[in-house]
Design a protein that fits this description.
Strand order of the largest sheet: 1-3-8-5-6
Helix content: under 10%
Number of domains: 5
Number of strands: 35
CATH architecture of the largest domain: Sandwich
Structural class: mainly beta
């Protein structure tokens, strides 16, 4: 005796006992397709069924592939021909709908192979093979929330341009079309695109005859699967010649000849299919662009020019022509260039694709050489603890007026330097070897006397600009200043 048969017997005895006691029974019988073994047979499509699953139960061992369905019912379908069906539970009185599709491969639950599942009002599109039995387990997710359960199946027809002979004719560009290839087929004799490393399947066809010669590009506005696309010339499946191929939604671009009909085969790899948006247009020109990776360049810098150009046609670039604005040129993709003098230079880049399309762009590169140098750090030859004396830093500047930060350090025991203080100063431009002097006051300390001498270090930093030559921005006083203790109490 099965578990569910026992459940029905117990329910009957309870109903009789309640009747004897004078109480009206409130139990409803489980639906006829409660058990897997009594699945409702779907004879033909379209199919729609309504059943009350309030008293439906979950059998021992019943699969719970995607979610628990405590009040499940069963359906079976064996198509007589290969078909694609849409399955949903639209019209059910509860929102937590759930159903699972299985392929039958044996006896009982152990012979079921999971295909797919959906819940909360979703749907499935399933490709079914003739003569194979499929099961659908339907119900609700939350215990006690069942009610009027609806299950609907309808056949999904193939798209109108499924076959080569019915290719959608493109009359003008740009052209956009949306199609669902899930029910598309592969005709006998269809070519396999040269770039496809899998198995092309579920194809649709488009045809276009341009009035003028020139490059055209085909791509996808969107796709829900791994795409493959090829373009052919010819008049039938038996005499097609491939002119281009792309996979994984890459753009397909080629030179089209006026008054020649081109056929576009759009399909999926590994049997994939689904919604896809096909787009065909005249190939746009490339977009020229570049960037310099050298901030605030000077005459001491080799400026890095990086090509950022983009070809929407996906063909790629054959050549790069650089004009640096000072008479120098380059054909490298990412060249280096050093200018001999400060100035504003208009740099132009022209790129050309392999199929002859070109584009140009230009940018102004400002070369400005900011450079100051510490010529000398002058310190007294000697000093005593507690004495305050002057440290003078001489700075040379022959280029631009600058505001600089001058930092002063003193030597300490064990090596290294300790920060004393800083001063922000304006440094004018002075010709030749003339310098600007900046002074610091320093009071000698017992630590200086303990060592017996002290050395001063100055560092100069240009504010608001990069120093083009920083090797001369750091200097040390010489010789060291001797420090005595005579003023120390």
């Amino acid at each position: 005796m099965s578990h569910k048969f026992s459940h029905r017997v117990v329910s009957l005895f309870m109903a009789v006992a309640i009747a004897i006691a004078g109480v009206s029974p409130a139990l409803a019988a489980p639906p006829s397709n409660d058990d897997f073994g009594f699945a409702t047979v779907i004879g033909s499509l379209p199919f729609s069924d309504s059943v009350d699953n309030t008293e439906a139960t979950l059998e021992p061992g019943e699969p719970e592939s995607c979610s628990s369905m405590p009040q499940s019912v069963w359906y079976s379908f064996t198509p007589v021909s290969d078909t694609v069906v849409r399955v949903d539970m639209d019209g059910s009185s509860f929102g937590d709908t759930a159903f699972v599709a299985y392929q039958d491969g044996g006896s009982g639950f152990g012979g079921l192979s999971f295909l797919d599942c959906s819940n909360f009002g979703g749907f499935l599109t399933l490709s079914l093979q003739a003569g194979t039995t499929y099961y659908i387990q339907a119900g609700n997710i939350f215990n006690g929330s069942g009610g009027d359960l609806h299950l609907n199946l309808q056949e999904v027809p193939p798209p109108a341009n499924d076959n080569f002979a019915n290719a959608s004719v493109i009359s003008a560009l740009p052209f956009d079309d949306s199609v669902d290839t899930i029910a598309a087929s592969l005709e006998a004799g269809e070519p396999t695109p040269s770039c496809d490393f899998g198995q092309t399947d579920r194809t649709v066809w488009y045809a276009f005859t341009p009035n003028t010669s020139g490059p055209i590009s085909a791509n996808f506005n969107f796709s829900d699967f791994n795409t493959v696309m090829a373009a052919f010339t010819g008049s039938s499946l038996a005499n097609l010649t491939e002119v281009g191929c792309s996979i994984f939604s890459d753009t397909l671009t080629f030179q089209a000849t006026a008054n020649t009909t081109y056929y576009f085969q759009v399909g999926g790899i590994f049997g994939d299919g689904g919604p896809v948006g096909f787009h065909l247009d005249i190939t746009p020109p490339p977009v020229a662009d570049f960037h310099t990776h050298t901030p605030q360049p000077s005459i001491f810098d080799s400026i890095e020019f990086h090509d950022l150009s983009f070809d929407p046609g996906g063909v790629g670039f054959q050549s790069w022509a650089w004009d640096f604005g000072d008479g120098a040129t380059s054909s490298e993709q990412n060249p280096l260039h050093q200018y001999a003098a400060d100035g504003d230079y208009t740099v132009q880049l022209t790129v050309t694709t392999f199929d002859g399309r070109s584009a140009s762009t230009s940018q102004v590169v400002q070369v400005s050489t900011h450079d100051v140098a510490i010529m000398k750090v002058a310190a007294p030859r000697s000093g005593n603890v507690g004495q305050t004396k002057t440290i003078t830093v001489s700075i040379k500047n022959n280029r631009y007026p600058e505001t600089v930060r001058i930092e002063l350090y003193r030597s300490v025991a064990g090596g290294g330097f300790e920060f004393i203080g800083f001063s922000t100063q304006f440094v004018p431009v002075r010709s030749g070897n003339r310098t600007s002097q900046f002074t610091f006051k320093y009071t000698f300390s017992p630590q200086d006397a303990q060592i017996g001498k002290v050395t001063f270090r100055a560092i100069v930093i240009i504010e608001g600009a990069n120093d083009a030559f920083q090797a001369d921005n750091d200097a040390i006083s010489t010789p060291p200043t001797r420090v005595g203790r005579s003023s120390y109490p």
